[in-house]
Amino acid sequence: MKKQNKIIIAIDGQSSCGKSTLAKQLSKKLGYAYVDSGAMYRAVTLYFLQNKISLTDQNAIELALKNLSISFVNKEGVNTTLLNGEEVETEIRKMYVSEMVSPVAAISTVRRAMVWQQQQMGKAKGIVMDGRDIGTVVFPTAELKLFVTADIETRTNRRYLELKEKGMTLTKADVSKNLQDRDHIDSTRADSPLKQAEDAILIDNSNLTREEQLAMVVALAKERIENS
Ligand code: CDP
Description:
The protein is of the alpha/beta class. It contains nine helices and eight strands.
């Protein structure tokens, strides 16, 4: 039997469009690594907030980036983010981090450091990474690129339920505003704005179940693996 080549799968899209769910399911199905690049920007934001780093102080930002390290561990099947060895998975999903993450992610020095680390993680291929610039900047030659979208009501409802289940108290209006604010900053920033790569396949999952979406994407991935 021919040895199967490993490919890189890049999944980009707006806030809370279901990228991470899809990326996790797909990586499990293919036996690939999964990297949540958004968690990295969230962890940097948490570090900046904890250490009161001013977003206009370039020296402080560079020093902070040297002093922080982000890694992932699989804890009972759940992908968990570590910041300087400490588990921050719950903290980085909180609203005060969501409110600051897009301005932090717009800083080129921050992006350069994260992109470098993401590219190292993808060197051996066999990886699914989700984010905003994965197909355009991090892995421009990825064998499969997906751009996921869903309408704002669907995205708001999904994120609201997700945060409510985690015991966070906020309104749907808070969630909707945060998603739209981030989408605006992420897609209008000068460095690596969120946009669909020319060769990405667009998936609007507003009316797709998770199972339908997964089946569609697994078929695409198998075809790309076969032809790689
Ligand atoms: O989960 P959700 O889709 O709401 O966001 P996320 O993937 O956790 O990303 C959080 C933020 O990180 C985004 O709003 C972007 O500002 C930034 N980000 C980025 O700039 N580039 C990436 N590759 C991933 C995330």
